[in-house]
Design a protein that fits this description.
about 30% helix, 6-stranded mixed beta sheet, single chain, alpha/beta, Rossmann fold, 3 domains, about 650 residues
Length: about 650
């Protein structure tokens, strides 16, 4: 017989989910519900490592950082409609709250959905605020920090270098957030992390542990400013961007667009004849000394004067013919293509022979040839492919961001330039309907970058931003979260003004964002400490007869139910003809549920819903009598609050 089930009241346990996955892969290593490490080692064989001197990375507080990661969140996100823009239509999201708690709440609904993460966390220079996580009750710490509970002296403070746990405090803050971030990435997803040299090496060690060394893509050096005379040895003009893949085997290769300088330098010739007359091209040598040695890429080529050439080497047979292959030794050079590809390009007029006195090629007598051979690289073709980006960026200095914020009249220091983030979005192939996450969003630069880039190419990239309401000394914008929200509003207002009076062509732009705020759960919490006291236990049972907190709001409960049941924040909410019942649908998952928060549920009222076995119906437990609960359980999946 089908039974009603309780709704999920906290986020999933990361440990339990990992153990479930491990049970599926290696059920033999479990004994009485726990891992038998002797069986695990025997199963792993040579892959196990019992050497006490093995390579590892640790710090004071790492165990607590893992414990806080494993602690489920009992918090929720409530909608702030008045602070949002176009709440009912937009798919962009701004969340005000502690990013660790928020990431836990996003874990189930957004697992494996994010294409790109960009974060600009505290550089730990001694002046940066480091989140004072408390593994016993992370939400309680957040509520105190933000004045929603008695602060008891818990103030936002910088991580001073005089602290004995200076590096450890920063690492303990970053570890659980990065671990959760990886879970949200798609298999082809990537993460970019801006960082200074104070914690660069430590961050890479943590990322190697969480993401795996094999998924390291690059460390980008970025010119943040030029000039200056700060410090005693070197002026700090560069910071870094660490880049990792979720799974490098699934990640698309990065490609950038050609700069004007690159075109002028390399693509500076024009075709004067043939099918591609008038097109621009550049030239690339057919032989490069750095090419790998492959037997089918060493052969003779006949030049315009009848002589034959081949890359340098030691293997020169007496017989020579055009296209004849020569098995290379390890030190022999090879062409970039096999002969069939060369012959195809030659017939297309894509091969160029040039006489020179500095050729690296040799002729049929083993002597230096007077010819070099090039192939044409057509600009039009190459622009479609893009160019491999450099891991050195000198185009986007921080002074650009100062001008951008000044134009919007937003008071904020040390933001990254919009064009830098647009560049990262482009090279990592973030495209239509992809989700981008920034959980240290600051002044919300990534939101502006996405909105502008969407307008540039007509795409619909979506952002999820998370920012702690860290206090400022600005009366107009008392927290950094307020700065971020207002910046997005002003960017949207500016973009709307630019399009005033123009015809609306193509699909509509998403010029809006939903605001959510981290709050305590709408569900009353069971106090484990009072179980031994019969009177206190009875009082709790009486209190939990209706498990919703005093003064609950229907919209707040709706989003908490959706989040903890695994539905995203862009759910579509429909008011049905049946009074008090709403249909909630996640368009990305193409799934949903019916929600009724009325004091009483009657079967007669539900007939028009035509509930089926796979339908999920959620209501308050006190709204059901035994007969109604039994009938509903047989009709559909029934969960109660």
């Amino acid at each position: 017989m089908a039974k009603k089930q309780p709704v999920t009241k906290q986020t999933p346990s990361i440990t339990e989910e990992q153990l479930t996955q491990l049970r599926e892969i290696m059920p033999n290593i479990f004994s009485e519900g726990k891992i038998d490490f002797e069986k695990l080692h025997a199963t792993l064989g040579d892959f196990g490592n019992e050497n006490p001197e093995r390579y590892s990375f640790s710090w004071a507080g790492k165990r607590d950082a893992i414990r806080i990661l494993q602690t489920p969140s009992r918090a929720t996100l409530i909608p702030a409609l008045k602070e949002s823009v176009d709440f009912d239509k937009t798919q962009n999201i701004f969340i005000e709250g502690d990013n660790l708690e928020v990431l836990k709440l996003l874990y189930k609904p957004y697992f494996g959905q994010v294409k790109m993460i960009y974060i600009d966390p505290p550089y730990n220079t001694g002046n940066d605020f480091v989140y004072p996580d408390n593994f016993a009750d992370p939400l309680d710490t957040y509520l105190k920090l933000t004045g929603q509970k008695d602060s008891a002296g818990n103030l936002l403070t910088s991580n001073a270098e005089t602290s004995g746990r200076y590096h450890s405090a920063w690492l303990s803050m970053m570890y659980p957030r990065l671990f959760l971030a990886r879970q949200l990435l798609r298999e082809d997803g990537v993460i970019f992390i801006s960082i200074g040299d104070n914690e660069m090496h430590n961050l890479q060690m943590v990322m190697n542990e969480i993401f795996g060394e094999e998924n390291f893509i690059s460390s980008i050096s970025r010119v943040m400013k030029t000039g200056g005379a700060k410090a005693n040895f070197f002026t700090p003009n560069v910071d870094f961007i660490l880049v990792y893949a979720k799974n490098i085997l699934s990640t698309a290769y990065f490609r950038a667009t050609f700069t004007k300088e690159q075109v002028e330098r390399y693509y500076n010739k024009q075709e004067i004849d043939g099918e591609r007359k008038g097109e621009i091209y550049g030239e690339e040598r057919l032989y490069k000394a750095s090419l790998d040695h492959r037997p089918n890429q060493r052969y003779w080529i006949q030049c315009p004067d009848g002589s034959f050439v081949i890359p340098p080497g030691v293997n020169f047979p007496k017989k020579v013919a055009h296209g004849m292959k020569v098995l290379p030794n390890a030190e022999d050079g090879v062409w970039k293509w096999i002969f069939e590809r060369y012959d195809e390009e030659f017939k297309k007029n894509n091969i160029v022979f040039k006489q020179t006195t500095t050729s690296a090629l040799v002729d049929e007598n083993g002597k230096q040839s007077k010819w070099n051979i090039y192939n044409k690289l057509w600009l039009k073709d190459q622009e479609e492919k893009g160019v491999i980006p450099s891991n050195f960026i000198d185009e986007f200095e921080n002074r650009q961001s100062s001008a951008e914020l000044k134009e919007l009249n937003i008071p904020f220091d040390f933001a990254k330039p919009v064009n830098l983030l647009k560049y990262l979005l482009q090279i990592s192939v973030v495209s239509d309907d992809d989700i981008v996450l920034d959980f240290f969003s600051g002044s919300a630069t990534i939101a502006q970058a996405i909105l502008e880039l969407n307008r540039d190419d007509g795409s619909n990239r979506k952002f999820i931003l998370v920012q702690l309401p860290e206090p400022t000394e600005n009366k107009e914008f008392p927290t950094i979260a307020e700065i971020g929200k207002e910046r997005i509003r002003r960017v949207i207002q500016k973009m709307k003004k630019e399009r005033e009076g123009q015809l609306k062509l193509g699909k509509p732009e998403d010029l809006g964002f939903k605001v959510f705020k981290l709050r305590e759960s709408n569900y009353k919490q069971w106090d484990e400490s009072e179980q031994k006291d019969p009177k206190a236990y009875a009082k709790q049972m009486e209190m939990l007869a209706d498990p919703l907190v005093k003064g609950w709001k229907e919209e707040d409960v709706l989003y908490e139910v959706a989040l903890k049941e695994g539905y995203g924040l862009n759910v579509i909410v429909e008011d049905l003809d049946v009074k008090g019942i709403r249909k909630v649908t996640d368009p990305d998952k193409e799934q949903g549920f019916y929600l009724c928060l009325a004091d009483k549920v009657k079967l007669m009222d539900l007939k028009t819903l035509n509930l089926k076995k796979d339908d999920l119906f959620i209501c308050r437990d006190i709204a059901l009598d035994d007969e109604t609960a039994a009938n509903l359980s047989l009709q559909c999946r029934l969960k109660t609050i």
